[in-house]
Fold:
Amino acid sequence: MTDLTPLELPALYPRQRAAIYAPERYSLIEASTKCGKTMGCMVWLLDHAWTHGQPGRNYWWVAPIFDQAAIAFKRIRLGLQVTPAPPEINLTSRTIELPNGATLWFKSGDKPDSLYGEDVYAAVIDEASRVKEESFYAVRSTLTHTRGPIRIIGNVKGRKNWAYQLARKAEAGEPGMSYHKLTAWDAVAGGVLDAREIEDAQRALPEAVFRELYLAEPSDDGGNPFGASAIAGCLAPLSPDPPVCWGVDLAKSIDYTVAVALDARGRVCRFERWRSPWQETLQKIQHLVGRTRAAVDSTGVGDPIVEALQRAGTGGIHGVKFTSTSKQQLMEGLALLIQHRKIAFPDGPIRAELDVFEYEYTRTGVRYAAPAGQHDDCVCALALAVSILPRATQPPMFSMKLKNL
Ligand SMILES: Nc1ncnc2c1ncn2[C@@H]1O[C@H](COP(=O)(O)OP(=O)(O)OP(=O)(O)O)[C@@H](O)[C@H]1O
Ligand SMILES: [Mg+2]
Structure:
């Protein structure tokens, strides 16, 4: 083994260090976004490879997809300064060979079959709740011969995933496993996050999203931004009162056009869902909406329909283009009203779509959508109607968000 001077590593804050450097072979860490998961585990893996590495010993970094593994690869590659001889870096195989002969590998958990076969001396699974279960089995098999340690870390994402299940075992005291939770407040105490940033996120995000992302508390609903009990709390029969506003989601290729009307108290009083040629759809919307205010989805093929409705001069037709930002704002507005029980809707298709609706945290923000293969046109129509509901019905925070639409 080459004699190496001690590696100079960035200091981890106490709770970050306690979680990642836990003495147990397994450490399961459920953590807030931006609390130092990747950085802390990079330090740990590098430290391990530097201290215990020998020629032929492999150290693995596994992330859900290649691009995420590439971020850790780049961060270590650019941060590592070794003198006199720099480490050997292979950009194609994404490996870093240290002067002691140990090799760091940066791998995607996307193809479990590609993860079998090596002997691995220590491993990190980053963003574990998004890594395939089969990939965890594969990584675990590579540590069998070496009895190498593993750090399994990530944001929480509902309860229906292997990382959640394994964390519960660790929390229950399974031998050889330790369990830790790092919240955004721990990162604030550690000087890595700013408290004002967390407070702002708490104001801006639906409660379930904030609790998962910043407090590492998994939701019951597997990432439903509205919350199953809040949805159930808003159920009421169709209101007999007249509409004060409409939301219309226009059919794209295979789904329905949905029109939802709210009364002055925010209760759904009309609900229509149909599939028909554009000319009929146009006439039907004119007939339904009359002179009442309506927010109509003007994304893509919706644009000419909205223009035709406006030309017909029926009333206050607002075209709303769905972008990831506008959809996020609409859904967060809807989530706030549902959580405050400020709207009501009948059991049936609206409730069913709300129940399965999901959010996903991505690098660019929170993405809201129906699960693959399912519809979200009732949810969109409801969110559009809610976006033009007169202010008296809305909690104060939502009125502020409305300005940005
Ligand atoms: N102990 C520390 N001391 C100083 N800065 C730190 C520490 N830990 C993390 N950071 C910094 O905090 C920022 C977020 O860290 P990192 O990317 O590791 O967080 P993360 O939890 O992996 O975030 P994400 O949710 O995006 O995956 C980075 O700029 C990182 O350099
Ligand atoms: Mg990270």
